[in-house]
Design a protein that fits this description.
This protein is of the alpha+beta class and about 160 residues long. Helix content is about 35%, strand content about 30%.
C-alpha cells in the first residue's frame, strides 16, 4: 500500500465570525459611557475595516474592543493589518485596517524551506496562496503541523484538507 497523505497550509478567516465581532464591537461602542458620544463609525468592507472616530484615544479603545471580540470568536489577531492614522474632517481621525488573507510567496517559500530542511520524507509545494504538504506517513504530517505551529509567521496559519 503506497498511498500518500496530504494537507494544505492556508491563511484564511471565517467571514461570518468577523462580521459578528464587528457588530458586537459597534454595540459596545454605543453602550460604553466613554465612547457613547464620540460618533464612532466602524465600516466593514470586503477587504478592509474603516474606523472613523473623534480622537486617537478613542481609536485605541475601539482597537482594544475589536481585538477582544475577535479573540473571543477564535479569530487570529494576525488578520488585521493596521494602516496609518489619518486626519479626517472636523478634527476627527480615520484608520483603515486591511484584512490579510492568503499566504504570500515569501512566506510560502519559508514554509517549504523549513519542510525541506527538517523533514526528508515530506514534500511541500506552493499552490497559489496555499502550501500543499504530502507524505507517506500521517505521523510525518502531524510533525510538520506541530512544527508550523511553533513558528511565528506574520500571518495566521490553518491546516485544511487533511487526508
Amino acid at each position: 500500500m503506497a498511498s500518500t497523505f496530504s494537507f494544505d497550509i492556508v491563511s484564511d478567516f471565517d467571514r461570518q465570525e468577523l462580521v459578528n465581532a464587528i457588530d458586537t464591537t459597534k454595540r459596545d461602542v454605543l453602550s460604553r459611557y466613554d465612547l457613547k458620544d464620540t460618533k464612532t463609525e466602524i465600516e466593514l468592507n470586503t477587504d478592509a475595516i474603516v474606523i472613523n472616530t473623534d480622537s486617537e484615544f478613542t481609536l485605541d479603545a475601539v482597537h482594544t474592543l475589536m481585538q477582544q471580540r475577535a479573540a473571543k470568536r477564535n479569530l487570529s489577531l494576525k488578520i488585521f493589518d493596521y494602516g496609518k492614522v489619518e486626519s479626517a474632517s472636523g478634527s476627527r481621525v480615520r484608520q483603515e485596517i486591511k484584512l490579510k488573507k492568503g499566504i504570500s510567496q515569501d512566506i510560502a517559500k519559508q514554509i517549504t524551506k523549513i519542510i525541506r530542511d527538517e523533514y526528508k520524507k515530506v514534500q511541500g509545494s506552493i499552490q497559489g496562496d496555499a502550501v500543499r504538504v504530502t507524505a507517506k506517513s500521517k505521523d510525518d504530517l502531524q510533525a510538520v503541523m506541530q512544527r508550523m505551529k511553533q513558528e511565528d509567521f506574520p500571518v495566521a496559519l490553518q491546516f485544511t484538507n487533511y487526508r
